[in-house]
Design brief:
Order of helices and strands: EHEEHEEHHHEHEHEEHHEEEEEEHEEEH
Oligomer: single chain
Distance between the termini: 53 Å
Low-confidence stretches: none
Structural class: alpha/beta
Number of helices: 11
Helix content: 25-40%
Radius of gyration: 27 Å
Strand content: 25-35%
Mean pLDDT: 85
């Protein structure tokens, strides 16, 4: 049985020469728009009871626009959405919350907007409060909440009454790991009861784990509807290395990355760059690619036992690998001046984003005499290459083989 049917769904944003032309268009008059931008075009699919569907795609692909039209908060320009049963959605963190009201008061208000009576909400209020687990803050104004606390209350309110269709748009990404697990457990329980799940996430693990189907949206068009692993593999391949490189450089050029610098000023790290085997400065690399981290450093004075160190961290801040010239036995010039240090390695890393921090100091660590510490001096992305698919934070270049074995005595008998 189909619980959700989307037919040729399209959305365009138009600008007119005057507001009278816009009003005329509402009444069916042939008023032509001055500009027209389609954010979604001819999207069609059906979802049946018990299905869990992940929606993936790059930022700006049209995913959130699609969900807003499914929930009815945005009207389509063309096409239709037909649904059966109650839809519950967490599209934007705290959407619909009054910041001056407490979590309890917002629960009454939000659940009321979903069609439940005050008596029904009061009956389940202890369950909402217990699931959110924010203690006395439940009776404090929402403006005093952290983003994680808002996420807890929003999810608790939305899912206390089991919906027929649950839509989640990355809202759980801000929650702590414990609460994410708690939410996933409730979602799985609802799925077993026939609930439809629509999940927008940039986490391939979540899509593969929770969903039995995935849709890939690109530039407002549905380009693939298949098994989650197949769609995500296609999606990863579609994200070109050059596009990743451009995106990271754009953030750098806009000064969007806040970094931490500290030190006593005896030396200054002038710049940090990442180079491929051809010597080109890159920000996106493939698994197993030879790379070199090059650091230009200036000594303001003669420094004995000078050391330059690096550490590579994943997106969660975990140290993946760190070393320095003291441990590698590389002598640095001790006199004042400018010079370059190169760290060469092979990118045997898992898919994802990484940062490089650099420090100039003396001896084997930066604790005693740190000249310049540059946190997140550079960010880079590791994308799939020609290697067989794998999971994890490291690529071990695994080789597999098989051979025939003689029958065991038991099998002969």
């Amino acid at each position: 049985m189909s619980l959700l049917s989307v037919k040729n769904l399209s959305k365009a944003y138009r600008s007119y020469g005057s507001e009278w032309q816009r009003i005329g268009r509402w009444f069916g008059l042939p008023c032509k728009a001055r500009e027209e931008h389609w954010v979604l075009r001819n999207v069609s699919f059906e979802i049946h009871a018990g299905e869990a569907v992940g929606i993936v795609g790059q930022n700006g692909a049209g995913k959130s626009t699609l969900l807003k039209m499914i929930t009815g908060t945005l009207q389509p320009t063309e096409g239709s959405v037909r649904s059966r049963g109650r839809i519950a959605a967490i599209l934007e963190l705290g959407m619909g919350f009054n910041p001056e009201l407490s979590g309890r008061e917002n629960a009454l208000h939000s659940a009321g907007l979903m069609g439940f009576s005050r008596e029904q909400v009061l009956k389940v209020m202890p369950e909402i409060e217990d699931f959110a687990e924010i203690g006395d803050y439940f009776d404090e104004p929402v403006r005093t909440y952290s983003s994680g606390m808002q996420s807890r209350v929003a999810f608790a309110i939305t899912t206390t009454f089991r919906p027929d269709i649950l839509i989640v748009d990355e809202a759980l990404a801000v929650g702590d790991i414990y609460f994410q697990h708690k939410c996933m457990q409730r979602i799985r329980a609802f799925q077993e009861q026939g609930m439809v799940l629509l999940l927008v996430s940039h986490d391939p693990g979540a899509v593969k784990s929770l969903c039995n189907r995935a849709l890939l949206i690109d530039s407002g068009t549905l380009i693939k509807d298949d098994r989650p692993d197949s769609v995500i593999d296609y999606y990863n391949a579609a994200i070109a290395k050059l596009e990743q490189d451009h995106a990271i450089r754009q953030v750098e050029s806009l000064g969007g990355e806040k970094v931490t610098r500290s030190g006593n000023g005896k030396a200054a790290i002038l710049d940090v760059s990442l180079h491929d085997a051809r010597g080109q400065d890159v920000r996106a690399v493939t698994v197993g690619e030879p790379l070199a981290i090059r650091c230009r450093i200036a000594y303001a004075e003669a420094i004995g036992d000078g050391t330059l160190g690096i550490v590579i961290r994943d997106r969660l801040g975990n140290d993946i690998y760190g070393t320095n010239t003291y441990h590698t036995g590389t002598a640095l010039p001790g006199e004042a001046g400018t010079f370059e240090v190169s760290f060469e390695f092979v990118a045997n890393l898992g898919y994802g984003s990484y940062s490089i921090s650099v420090a100039s100091h003396t001896h084997d660590n930066h604790v005693q005499d740190c000249h310049d510490w540059w946190d997140r001096a550079l960010v880079f992305q590791v994308v799939p290459g020609n290697e067989p698919r794998f999971v994890g934070s490291s690529h071990l270049s695994m080789v597999t083989s098989t051979r025939s074995l003689p029958p065991s005595p038991a099998s002969v008998e």
